[in-house]
Design goal:
The chain has one domain: 3-Layer(aba) Sandwich (Rossmann fold), CATH 3.40.50.10610. The relative contact order is 0.18. The protein is an alpha/beta fold. A hairpin with a 5-residue loop joins strand 3 and strand 4. 26% of the residues lie in helices and 36% in strands. Strands 1, 2, 3, 4, 5, 6, 7, 8 and 9 form a 9-stranded mixed β-sheet that branches.
Length: 208
């Protein structure tokens, strides 16, 4: 009986030792807007300017870290695109799902005066900045504490009114989960980003 106990302890010890020597992992995260029910098409037109990535991260595709108790760090990186392109596409998808026709923004400097140089058939023009888009996970033996941070600014140009509205939002939900599931983290991050964009851009839906 004692021999069996010792054998189990040796196997557990070996597993811990091997996990401590395992290399860091990189998880690829796909950033997407999560649509609600699509609205019927309208005659409204939204021009979308690229959202600028002004985050402090030196690696432009880095959007998350998973810290282990043994000081090993895994990385979460945006898949197949940049943060700027992913957020810009998410904004496009928001307007499409709300019945807008969508076009690219050309030459708007985010000022009210700059609206005079845009096509007269536009309803709204939108641009902005991504100040933070990050996941930080701290994994223990059984559980992982996860912090999501989404911080963005948006400039909304109402073309007929010749006015520009600036909005900012910060969302920092936390949770504790058993283990670490990158697919769940991807879904939750996209949900947090989607909710932030919906709050930022809600007033565009009543623009004429």
């Amino acid at each position: 009986m004692k021999a069996n106990v010792y054998a189990v302890l040796m196997i557990l010890g070996l597993a811990v030792a091997l996990s401590g020597c395992a290399p860091s992992k990189t998880y690829l995260i796909e950033l997407n807007y999560l649509p609600d029910q699509k609205a019927a098409p309208t005659a409204k037109v939204a021009a979308i300017c690229p959202f600028e990535d002004v985050r402090k991260e030196t690696e432009r595709d880095l959007i998350g870290l998973r810290n282990h108790g043994d000081k090993k760090v895994d990385f979460l990186k945006v898949e197949g695109t940049s943060v700027s392109e992913a957020v810009t596409q998410a904004v496009r998808d928001y307007f499409i799902d709300n019945g807008f026709q969508v076009t690219d923004c050309k030459g708007w400097d985010m000022s009210p005066e700059g609206l005079d140089r845009l096509p007269g058939d536009l309803t709204v023009v939108v641009g902005g900045k991504v100040d933070s888009l990050m996941v930080e996970a701290n994994s223990g033996v059984m559980t992982t504490n996860i912090q999501y941070t989404v911080r963005m600014r948006v400039h909304i140009g109402k073309v007929k009114e010749r006015t520009v509205v600036t909005r900012a939002i910060e969302s920092m939900p936390k949770e504790k989960k058993v283990g670490f599931d990158p697919e769940y983290v991807e879904e939750t991050l996209n949900s947090v980003m989607t909710e932030a964009l919906q709050k930022l851009l809600a007033e565009c839906l009543v623009c004429e």
